[in-house]
Specification:
The chain folds into 2 domains: 122 residues, no CATH class; 248 residues, no CATH class. It has 22 helices and 9 strands. Strands 3-2-1-4-5-6-7-8-9 form a 9-stranded mixed sheet. Helix 16 links the parallel strand 8 and strand 9. Helix 1 packs across helix 6 and helix 17 runs antiparallel to helix 18.
Amino acid sequence: MRNDTSESFLEYKTRVIDPKSASFCGAKWHNATIWLGHGQTVSCHQPAPHDIPLEELKENPSAIHNTMYKKEMRKMMLEGDRPEECFKCWTVEDGGPDKISERVFKTIMYDESDLDVIPTKPWTDNSFLRTLEVSFDRACNFKCSYCSSAFSTAWVKDIKDNGPYENLTSDARGHYIDTAPWATSAAQKDEDNPYIRAFWEWWEEEGGLADTLQSIRVTGGEPIMHPGVWKLFDWFKNNPERGKSMRFSINSNLVPEKEKTFQKLLEVIQYVPAFEMFASCESTGEQSNYIRDGMNYDTWLNNVKRVLDQPNVQKLYAMMTINALCLCSITDFMDDMLALREVYGTDRGPILSLNLVWYPEFQSISTLPTYIIEHYNDKLKTWYDKRKGDLTAQEDVHVTRVIDHMDKAIRIPHTDEVLKKRQNDFKSFYTQYDERRGKDFRATFDPIMVDWYDTLTVETTSISDRNYKAGK
């Protein structure tokens, strides 16, 4: 890691974060992801979401963010205790005093004046939001390999049509077992959904979301499949003064089922003074199309350019989900993004954001055998040495974090028992994935990956075992 990169973030952590507490994170107060369809919330993408209690919502529409559970986590942070749900940050930081975890990035985005007030207020107070990621429902035309029916209606259809995936025991969440009925929208119509009603109530009230938010980002599923995102575009069109200081962005797979939907998106972007696009991808060509079922990489790449051609688009982020399979072409993908950045400018992007897959466990990098991790780690290190001068400071941290993760997986591999279980599930899942989706693992990935894949065998488990492990 470059010294100027680490020193910059470490200096901020020492000067701003550490005096508040050893575990403080601004995201617990000023950031949220909220799934309005079925009523769950979380303060960032690292912990697991939790339910929004309807009783808390009755008198306080801001309880879609300010749940009592979150307030208890805030109390722990103010007292310097580590909430267990934030283990991903603690894992990074325990790697050494110079390691920068996500909580630094999730705090540095806020004004220091907002952060300085937090320790002076009771932990039970409601907090306003500065940044919000919101999902109206799980409608999606993709069924990516590491996703699930909890976040994609296309995945729901897979499970309904083909039944649960068999012989998977390492993923404790039972991600591929059922249609995630708990993620079903609370009501068929938005006006009957108490969480969506609370959102619009909080949005419109004096001092509410429309007044405090610096950024709102709509996610899914695929957000352009839900009317809520178009309602927000209409709000920006009809409220140019109120909306002029707020960034509006969406997470999108950028490959809609209908071209006219994408064309509509390009047209309404003009109503947002500061629009940002978060486009999901992490590999190229047929490997990308395999990992993200529904993807057409050529279409995706062209649509990235079409978005960046819009004058109101300030930034485009390439949201990379770093899993075992993307290692085959991750450096090619980053080269494609940096080539586009030469055309559109460093400030506009594409800007790289690398996020490690922890779940499902069998799709994580650490499931691979050591010699394959070493192979791709050497490839990534060679790429980094060549291209690090082209990276932003945060991109530098993200890339080196992946390298550090691979280094650790090489030095301290999982036990034989854990690896056997995960690799069994790797082979079992992708065998069924190929059959269900009409794909071909062997024809898609590198020989080193395919040769190893062909050595794997699948041990079957009974239906009762599978249901037990899925928490049925």
